[in-house]
Design a protein that fits this description.
Distance between the termini: 59 Å
Oligomer: single chain
Largest sheet: 10 strands, mixed
Helix content: 25-40%
GO molecular function, one term: nucleotidyltransferase activity
Protein name: Selenium-dependent hydroxylase accessory protein YqeC
Number of strands: 21
């Protein structure tokens, strides 16, 4: 169901002021609804009481640290006006002052407020002083992402300690029943007491991820005191960001194996140049090389490839993986479904055609994790859907993405290669 239809069903006053709380796509939902209402001739003010992404990151125009008069002027014509104050966090904006908000909101025909933070998790249980709801709010929409269902609570829930107070430490998998309990006890009951008379509803976002969405919605709503609606995210274009890890110490090899010549060329260069060709052909959106070695970074720059230095290679492969994720995130385009694909630089015989066939078959599989394998033994490269980024960013030491892969075997697509030499890591010198 479209968001504007949900608001009509709840009852839309002449001037709605909606607070979006919870997790699992608040900003996207706000912009979707704002665009729908703007297309119907309304002037819509989008703001926050906490923090939200800067307008330019959202690929929007914004009014940051502007006077109430300037914001009011922007609201004189139909459209979406994103307004806020400069935040100490460079990529964020924070709330308007009370005076500026009051004057700006009085001019808008609808106000949409991001009133809660979730740090990209699909589910949240609010802590103390959360969420931050304005008194003029007419509707409070509590969001949760369907991608969280069936997964361990610690992987999908922001403010885990508050969730455990509600469920107890023994409930580790998020089911329909536990999700309903978290939302009812965490949000609905306290919000009803604190903001009587407001329209409250739960929106289960990412309905397209559910096999039987209506059955899931009914089961959750049966345990709650507010209506539950399904929301379908629009089909997103899939983008792949490639990350080449080239920062190892080569301790068993006896010298820097990445610079070791294979058929007259440094080992790392074989993979790097093949990935560059794949990107040029449009099969991947970006390519990032992570290394501690100046020679590799300089060559990446010479070829127009983004190179990022890892100053902490001694911390293990997890540090390179996370630096690569952060760098690749800069290339992410909003409203796209994003995958991150990791390569290692000591597989010089990995063929371009093999990577292309793997990507084609992976997309057809519908899985969220994929890896190449030989005789069912997982190898590199490995690809992850963006929903696994929090787990990847939590890795420590010399632990790579295989740890996350092994936790989610039901989500893994294995691409069998015929030649094991393509996947062989050169940890010791071999005969060429």
């Amino acid at each position: 169901m479209k968001l504007y239809q949900i608001i009509e069903k709840l009852g839309r006053p002449e001037k709605p002021v909606l607070s979006f709380v919870g997790a699992g796509g608040k900003t996207s939902c706000i912009l979707e609804l704002a665009d729908d209402w703007a297309a119907r001739g309304k002037s819509v003010l989008v703001t926050t009481t906490v923090h939200m992404e800067r307008p330019e990151i959202l690929e929007r125009t914004g009014w940051i640290d502007q006077s109430a008069e300037n914001i009011r002027k922007a609201l004189e014509t139909p459209g979406v006006v994103i307004a806020g104050s400069r935040s100490e966090t460079p990529q964020k904006i924070r709330e308007l002052s009370e005076e500026v908000y009051s004057q700006a909101a009085s001019k808008a025909q609808a106000v949409l407020v991001e009133a809660d933070g979730s740090r990209k998790f699909p589910v949240k249980v609010p802590g103390k002083n959360e969420p931050v709801i304005r008194e003029d709010t007419t509707h409070i929409l509590i969001l949760a992402g369907a991608s969280a269902l069936g997964r361990p609570l610690e992987q999908v829930c922001h403010r885990l300690e508050y969730a455990e107070k509600i469920l107890g430490p023994q409930n580790r998998i998020l089911t329909r029943e536990t999700l309903a309990k978290l939302l009812e006890k965490g949000y609905v009951e306290p919000l009803k007491k604190q903001y009587p008379g407001r329209k409250l509803a739960v929106i289960l976002n990412q309905q397209d991820l559910l096999k039987e969405p209506e059955k899931v919605r009914t089961a959750i709503e049966a345990q709650m005191s507010v209506p539950v609606f399904l929301h379908s995210r629009e089909e997103k274009k899939k983008h792949i960001h490639m990350i080449l890890l080239a920062a190892g110490f080569s301790r068993r090899f006896g010298e820097n194996k990445l610079l070791y010549p294979i058929k007259g060329r440094p080992m790392y260069l074989w993979t790097m140049e093949r990935l560059k060709e794949i990107q040029k052909e449009g099969l991947a959106e970006s390519l990032v090389v992570v290394s501690q070695y100046e020679e590799i970074l300089k060559e990446a720059g010479r070829q127009g490839i983004a190179g990022v230095k890892n100053p902490h290679s001694e911390r293990g492969i997890s540090s390179s993986l996370q630096i690569g994720l952060e760098a690749a995130g800069c290339f992410k385009i909003r409203d796209t479904e994003t995958y991150y694909m990791f390569f290692v630089a000591d597989q010089p015989f990995l063929r371009k055609a093999t990577v292309e066939n793997f990507l084609s078959d992976f997309e057809k599989s519908g899985k969220k994790i994929g890896c190449m394998s030989y005789r069912k033994t997982p190898g590199n490269p490995v690809i992850f859907h963006e929903c696994f980024v929090p787990e990847l960013m939590a890795l420590q030491g010399d632990t790579g993405g295989k740890k996350v892969l092994k936790k989610h075997m039901e989500e893994v697509f294995f691409y069998e290669v015929q030649d094991p030499g393509e996947l062989e890591d050169w940890d010791i010198k071999l005969n060429e």
